[in-house]
Structure formats: C-alpha cells, structure tokens
Amino acid sequence: METSTPRRDAFAALLLLAICVPFALVLGEIYIDPFDAGFSARDFPVGVLSAIVVLSLVLLIRSIRQMRQAGTPFVDRTVVEEHLKFGLPIVLVGIAYVSLFVMFQYLVPTAIAMSVVLYMFKNRGWVRLGLVPVIASLGFYLLFFGVLSLHEFPGTVVRYDGSQMWRGLMALFGQ
Known about the structure:
The chain is an all-alpha fold. It has helices at residues 6-25, 43-70, 77-104, 107-120, 126-147, 162-165, 167-172. α1 packs antiparallel against α2. The longest helix has 28 residues, at 43-70. The chain is globular and about 60 Å long. The N and C termini lie far apart (55 Å).
C-alpha cells in the first residue's frame, strides 16, 4: 500500500468535499432568531464548512499540480477502491446525521453519529462507543446552545426547547 502521495491527497480532498455536501444543503434550514444581534446560528457551521472547503480545494489543487509534474496518472483503481471502502461510509454517516438532526434535533443524532464513526475507526468498548459520545454531545450542546445561545430548529419527530434548559446558565453570562 502506498503512503502519502499526491493522488491520495487529491482523493482525500474530494472525499472531504463530498462530506460537506449534505451539511451545506441544510444550512439554509438553520433557524435564526430575528431579534438576536451578532453571531447567528448559521455563522459557526458556515465558517467550519467554508474552512473545510477552502483547505480541501488547496489540497486538491496542490495534489493535481504534483501529479502533473511527476506524470502520475490521476486514477489508480486500487487507491480508489481503498478510499471508497473507508470514505463512502463516512459520507453516508454524514447524510444520515443530517437526516436524523432534522428529525430529532441535536443531542441524539450527534451521539449516534459519533458512536458510529468511532466504531468505524476501530474504537471498541462501552466507554468509547457509549460514554464518550454522550459526554461529548452534552458538552457540545452546552457550548453551542447554552454558552453561545444558538437556537435549535425544532425536530420533525421530537421537539424540545433547549433554551429552557440553559436559562440559568445564560443568566450567569448576562443574557
């Protein structure tokens, strides 16, 4: 198996761009409080996606230049098969995550997606697959919806008002 090559870098950049697609498609559905001035609920996801897209395009362009200079063919079947074996499931997890996010809001889909991705990367045991995703999801939830006061769009299947949970914490920050 070849190590880091321009072809691998190019394929990785393409996979990263593919992973961004399901998330970019739903950015417009993120609820923005019309009375909330400043940093909105869309700003952070747009910033993260923009950074990933820019870095992926830089990596892709650099890789294509290196392949042209070396005369390396753009497509190698074994590399494509190897990347699809690992990359395609990640893209599918992204699509499933966005779908579950729309249905169940943030907490449950985030913990599930994190657990699935950890399992895919050969993490095993109840602590890594169960406890870590739950604690991390709660931590991210506290950060995004408690501290940053982002507004969560109600799910189509499950709806809860996360802002009610954080009212006391938000009062400490003067909000």
